[in-house]
Amino acid sequence: MRGMMFLGNRKVELRDFADPVPGPGEVVIAMRASGMCGSDLKPYRHVAGDTSTRGVPMPTEPTIGGHEPCGVIEELGAGVVGKGLRKGARVMVHHYAGCGTCPHCRGGWAQLCADVPPTVYGMTGHGGHAPYMKVPAFTLVHLPDALAFSTGAAISCGTGTAHAALVRIGCSGNDTIAIFGQGPVGLSATQLATAMGARVIALDISAARLARAKAFGAWATIDPSRDEPVGAIRDLTHGGATLSLETSAAASARRAAVQCVRTWGTACYVGEGGEVTLEVSPDLLRRQVSLVASWTFSSGGQANCARYVEERGIDVEALFTHRWKLEQAEEAYRLFDRQADGKGVFLF
């Protein structure tokens, strides 16, 4: 089969890989949709010796990219049993695998495995940018019949990450939340926080992305390149947001996300990599501000996100501005690299 791999230096390549065969406890999935995520830009842009990808594992050998896989079970290996595990079942993949027995793995948090370096599918293990993908059966998460495969792909990373962070900080109709960055994760957060009843202040330097955020329910929008964001948020809210969510990993946005919340407020970081400098006393301690880090989600959290999207009728499909065939991967990532449009997905 042909699979897409990241070469670094803003290059991708379609290469021949052996068709996967499931071993004991494994399944092969026929891909229906494989999403493009902002984290893909790390291996896409990577230059040998570059340390800016700290925290994002880089492939060390030819590896199929794509960590938002969604499809149907094609083949089951020996010993695979469980409710819903049958050929043709609609599934998402929780894109991590650890030892399977430590407390984190048993709780669905394989990315936090205490015993072995976890496999990250699409980074250190073959991902979804190919017709077929082999994974352990325990990574599978049911995709409700009402949801499109592309919606399942989004939930498998970007939308799932946004949902997990909002749940963790208790976002509700009592809140005004400032969401920094309106890429795929930030726009998902805007859509979900609006569904949770919160007033959303969306921030981005792209006019097109701010327009999409407004269409997704944002109460107000701010362009930090035109207006000082902390002051603008404090003016809009008469003192500061109750919550903030930072998705861009930009140092200035991270600092502003902490400074813009009011006393007793909570700021949450989900963007990978990068650094930030804060003044502990005025920014955090003397305002009783909570700073939370939220890294993706558990397998159970992924299932909860899918149920929430289904029950609330959230139009996750509206996130996608581009739908591609795998043969268009070079063009797809060249466009995605601009970070000016919405989300892309490969359909099979």
Brief write-up:
The chain is an alpha/beta fold and 348 residues long. The protein is built from eleven helices and 17 strands. The chain has helices spanning 41-45, 103-106, 149-155, 158-168, 184-195, 207-215, 229-237, 251-259, 280-284, 299-312, 329-336, and strands spanning 2-8, 11-16, 26-35, 69-76, 90-93, 96-97, 119-120, 132-136, 140-142, 176-180, 199-203, 220-222, 241-246, 261-269, 290-293, 320-324, 343-347.
Tell me what the structure shows.
By secondary structure, the chain is of the alpha/beta class. It folds into two domains: 2-157 and 297-347, Alpha-Beta Complex (Quinone Oxidoreductase, Chain A, domain 1), CATH 3.90.180.10; 161-293, Rossmann fold, CATH 3.40.50. Helix content is 27%, strand content 26%. It has eleven helices and 17 strands. It has helices at 41-45, 103-106, 149-155, 158-168, 184-195, 207-215, 229-237, 251-259, 280-284, 299-312, 329-336, and strands spanning 2-8, 11-16, 26-35, 69-76, 90-93, 96-97, 119-120, 132-136, 140-142, 176-180, 199-203, 220-222, 241-246, 261-269, 290-293, 320-324, 343-347. The strands form four sheets. Strands 3, 4, 5, 8, 9, 16 and 17 form a seven-stranded mixed beta sheet that branches. Strand 13, helix 8 (251-259) and strand 14 (261-269) form a beta-alpha-beta unit. Helix 4 (158-168) packs across helix 5 (184-195) and helix 4 (158-168) crosses helix 10 (299-312). It is globular and about 60 Å long.
